[in-house]
Automatic annotation (TrEMBL):
Source organism of this protein record: Gluconacetobacter johannae
Annotated GO MF terms: ATP binding; ATP hydrolysis activity; transmembrane transporter activity
Domain of life (superkingdom): Bacteria
Family note: Belongs to the ABC transporter superfamily. Macrolide exporter (TC 3.A.1.122) family.
Protein name: ATP-binding cassette domain-containing protein
UniProt-listed InterPro entries: AAA+_ATPase (IPR003593), ABC_transporter-like_ATP-bd (IPR003439), ABC_transporter-like_CS (IPR017871), ABC_transpr_LolD-like (IPR015854), MacB-like_ATP-bd (IPR017911), P-loop_NTPase (IPR027417)
Length: 249
């Protein structure tokens, strides 16, 4: 199927149409996708995600999940096709406008936390607030860290925090500007099972509290099952789209 999916009954926050991502063919000339002009990482992916919806993206390693997320984040541009987030077509924006739009609209959480190593927990969470020109930065960042249970770790550097604590700082940083969209790429991939579960409980709780739209890449079926919908990606295509939790009939 083409990934248009089930109507969620909510206004769309993400509308992606016929996304292709093609990279130059490998020097060996061997190209499993059969495109002589290059290697198709994504092949005509279309999807709509409703405001406030949580979508789990599952699929084999190398199927294109992270690449799709990068296009939705505007961190990569598609070779063909269009991404519209909250009514804005990302391809219409130059790099500066795109960065501003992303700061206003999108939070991102990665498997490897991606905290700035020379900054304390508080300073890491302050970064998006300062970029947004917020005068209330310290109080807001402190409250965000308290909300993830880290009010006792404000002055700690990432190396002085456990993996679960680092990911909670990353969640605080992602949510502190209350973005409409949160993109998460295997956020529990580097955590043990129990820590991963508590980080995920926190992420879903913040997502529901703020009504954030969530796109979550995961290899964990239990995590995908906590989403409203589950998209299967295989060989650069969306091959199935299942409604789950709240949209179940
Ligand atoms: N810039 C690039 N140049 C060439 N190939 C790339 C590039 N980026 C990604 N790929 C290839 O595209 C395919 C999809 O990669 P992607 O990281 O999106 O997969 P994934 O589904 O997220 O995998 P995983 O579950 O292992 O993280 C892979 O085969 C990868 O090697």
């Amino acid at each position: 199927m083409d990934g248009e999916g089930f109507p969620s009954g909510r206004p769309a926050l993400i509308e992606a149409e016929d996304l292709w991502l093609t990279v130059p063919a490998r020097p060996s000339g061997v190209n499993p996708t059969g495109n002589p002009g290059g290697l198709d990482i994504l092949s005509g992916v279309s999807l709509r995600v409703g405001e406030g919806e949580a979508v789990g993206i599952v699929g084999p390693s190398g199927s294109g999940k992270t690449s799709l997320l990068m296009l939705l984040a505007g961190l990569e541009r598609p070779t063909r096709g269009r991404v519209r987030i909250a009514g804005t077509v990302l391809g219409d924006l130059d790099e500066n406008a795109l960065a501003r739009f992303r700061r206003r609209t999108t939070g991102i959480v990665f498997q490897s936390f991606q905290l700035i190593p020379t900054m304390t927990a508080l300073e890491n969470v302050l970064v998006p607030l300062e970029l947004a020109g917020r005068a209330d930065g310290v109080a807001t960042a402190t409250a965000a860290l308290a909300a993830v249970g880290l009010d006792g770790r404000l002055g700690h550097l990432p190396t002085e925090l456990s993996g679960g604590e680092q990911q909670r700082v990353a969640l605080a940083r992602a949510f502190v500007t209350q973005p409409r969209l949160l993109l998460a790429d295997e956020p529990t991939g580097n955590l043990d099972t129990r820590t991963g579960e508590s980080v995920m409980a926190l992420m879903f709780s913040l997502q529901q509290q703020y009504g954030t739209t969530l796109v979550l890449i995961t290899h964990d079926p239990a995590l995908a099952a906590r989403c409203d919908r589950r998209l299967h990606v295989r060989d650069g295509r969306v091959t199935a789209d299942h409604p789950l939790r709240r949209d179940d009939p």
